[in-house]
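Thread title: Can someone regenerate the structure for this chain?

I was given the following input by a collaborator and told the matching structure tokens would be attached. They weren't. Posting the sequence so someone can regenerate them.
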Amino acid sequence: MGREHSPLDLIKENILRLPAPLTVIATEQQLTILRTSKGSAWIADAKLLEAELDQDIDYRNLGDRGIVVVQVDPRVPSSMARIEHIKARHPELSIVVALDNADLKLVRTLIREGVADVVSLPLDSEELLQTAVAILETASKSPGPSDLAPMIVTARSLGGTGATTLVTSLASQLARRPGSARGVCIIDLDVQFGGVADVLGLSPRRTLADLLDAEERLDGAFLQTVAAKHESGISVIAAPQDIIPLEGIDTQKLQSVIAIARREFDFVLLDMPSNWSTWSLSIMLEADCILMIVEQSLSSLRQARRRLDLFRSVGVDMKLVSTVVNRVEKRLFGSISLSDVAETLNQDVLCGLRLEGQAIADAQAQGLLVDQFKPKSNYVADVSKLADMLASRLSSEKTP
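Best answer:
Regenerated them for you:
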């Protein structure tokens, strides 16, 4: 009786093929080793892209499905940046990182950041095949991708720029638009000082921490029980009640929470912390729109420029970043104009939000939105125009 062959053996012998494309990005030396390693016949079906560690890559060659193996070196920052570039441009790809002498701490960090697996150098065809088959088997048991709601991120140049007020007011305006049947969700990711729930007068029993700890219970139904409902119709996933260290957030779990929210609602808005971390930058790379909130002050513009430089350095698509100037004052002398802001940041200003005075503070003291407290205010009119612009832009980008 003949020996039974496993699918792994059949692929290795080039009788079967991997059910999804495989791309390997590595140096000439590593690709040569891979081609000549034992049992490498199946590699003929893979796409091998030669690139030195400090060399730019044309990410358009990767496709939108399958597995990409990318060689990196922690000592070469540009090579590490490849991971975030791939995640941003091809979120459906499974990423395998190939590196030399990986310690356990680094491997854990990479897995937490959304990498599917890690393989060692030199590249070995048998190890690579086993890894690829395991990833594809896991993916086949997972639900397929679905249509995700647009994700709008609000980033602040400094604390106190009114970003939380804006995110709540913007959510209210988006929720009022025709066709917003599933509503709008705000996720407060300022895990140390988040105040979205406080601004809206909400006292939620559950918070983001419950979702991050949910494990197998995490699904749309559970997320809806955690999301606190405001009378305006906005749903809020509040920041944790206890202060959490920024590095204590599990990126993969957070990405799962956000993905489920994007399946449950028509718009998802994220209120980001002032301080940036690896996980917050990873989330930024998945955004459909990023609003940089600034004020007409030198300190605000200086910090905004630093943040924009950071975004560029990690591969954020700057076409998705829009500047919003809050608390706009029109004075004849001594003020920084909107054109000055645009020139300083080298970014067009999407809109300015006029200074509203006491109305915002009075509204928030009562747990109300500004449009509930003073619907005819200049601030409400400006945010309404911003909502229209964003909804129109996101709708046109989504339409094939």
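The chain has 16 helices and 13 strands.
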